[in-house]
Amino acid sequence: MSRLEGYDNPQxxxxxxxxxxxxAHIDPExxxxxxxxxxxxxxxxxxxxxxxxxxxxxxxxxxRMIRPRRVLELGTFTGYSxxxxxxxxxxxGIVYTIDINDELEEFTTSFFEQSPCRDKxxxxxxxxxxxxxxxxxxFDLIFIDADKREYLEYYHAVFDKVNQGGFxxxxxxxxxxxxxxxxxxxxxxxxxxxxxxNFVAQDERVETVIIPLRDGMTILRKK
Length: 223
Description:
The chain is of the alpha/beta class. The chain is 38% helix and 20% strand.
């Protein structure tokens, strides 16, 4: 799916061409991220999990706008989004990024070490729900992009660690459009995304908006 492609196209828009136009008219992808993108697609299973050029620049811009000093990311994968977040942080900013897959540690760490932002990244391996309580920090921004089955559990786990006025961004909340289909109860990932979407839509502690970009990004502001 194109990063911009929706589910209805009455005008017959060429989304691939439009996608290329957008990428040509935003900040270029840094060389290190180009290499990370390429190597992820060549060497790593399920490379589509990588954020990519457009979403990466958007994440950096969100960080520039929100101006957080502490960020928490759930779901490092190969480190693309963490590097983009770190780019936007102030000199004393830190992004904690948690991933459960230790098989990616060597690959991901090699790219973190090449980055001029390496001192702003704290890479933690382990189960996010077990790791979060051990982090003695509060956060201005949290980016959720881990196991979709546990999205609502992540939300509950991080909520008290979000500063008042802080933000939570959850990725993949349209989940290839499956959220508007009749979901098979055995499809635990789609069920997990729907549980999260339904809960936050009714949660009066936050302001909520969904951006239909790529696979959907939900942005929540803690009141």
